[in-house]
Amino acid sequence: MKENPDPRGLSRGEIVRIEGNVYPMSLLKFEMAIGAFSEFTGDDIQEAFHAIDQPTPFTKDEERQMEAVGTLMESFTGDMYPLRIESGGSKYCTELKRDFMRQPVFDAFVENEKFTLVGRVKKYVKGNETWNPFLALNIIDKYVSEEESVEEFQDDFKESGEELNISIKDEDFEVQGHTAVIEPIAVYW
């Protein structure tokens, strides 16, 4: 098992152990933010605001919009959560299966903490290439018309995030090569 290896020296099938900071990619980051908004729209919160004679933070229309966006994000990510892991100047990519999470994703990744990823190298991404979760999760084929490019879709996605005060950076959309895509065996902190 290789410990925090340089991605350039990895081959498909090798087992690696990587310790580093985990960052949710654009889709997961968006879904987590919508989940946080949902906490403020629950019945308990609504009752608390009414009890102290304060207006609720969101209108019913805003609540419905956020719920619809949350459902859309879940359909985008399907059963996978895209993550970027940074360790010692190297970046790695992985996709966690939703059903294998032992706690809610928001609780697991709300802060950039150190995580350990043990997994098998699925693919090496060369220096002139990128890893894009939209492409990796086959979202583009399902949700984007042939006339719309990946870049246009990502720009629209980023604009939607800005409207909801969700900070989405370019690095949240794709990871520049030299990187490796790791099929997780275990992720823990």
Task: Note down, in words, how this protein is organized.
With 189 residues, this protein is α+β, with helices and mostly antiparallel strands. It has helices at residues 26-39, 43-51, 60-77, 105-109, 133-136, 139-143, 150-163; strands at residues 2-3, 15-24, 80-87, 90-97, 114-125, 130-131, 175-176, 179-188. It has one domain (2-26, 79-188): OB fold (Dihydrolipoamide Acetyltransferase, E2P) (Beta Barrel), CATH 2.40.50. It contains 7 helices and 8 strands. The strands form 2 sheets. Strands 2-3-4-8-5 form a 5-stranded mixed β-barrel. The protein has a two-stranded antiparallel sheet with strand order 6-7. The mean pLDDT is 82. InterPro entries: DUF6414.
Outline the secondary-structure elements.
Blueprint: E1 2-3, E2 15-24, H1 26-39, H2 43-51, H3 60-77, E3 80-87, E4 90-97, H4 105-109, E5 114-125, E6 130-131, H5 133-136, H6 139-143, H7 150-163, E7 175-176, E8 179-188
Parallel strand pairs: 1-2, 4-8
Antiparallel strand pairs: 2-3, 2-5, 3-4, 5-8, 6-7
What's this model, at a glance?
The chain is about 35% helix and about 30% strand.
Largest sheet: 5 strands, mixed, barrel
CATH architecture: Beta Barrel
- The count of strands amounts to 8
Terminal CA distance reads 19 Å
Low-confidence stretches: none
Under CATH at level 1, the class stands as: Mainly Beta
CATH topology type: OB fold (Dihydrolipoamide Acetyltransferase, E2P)
Shape: globular
Order of helices and strands: EEHHHEEHEEHHHEE
What's the tally of helices?
Answer: 7
Pfam families: DUF6414
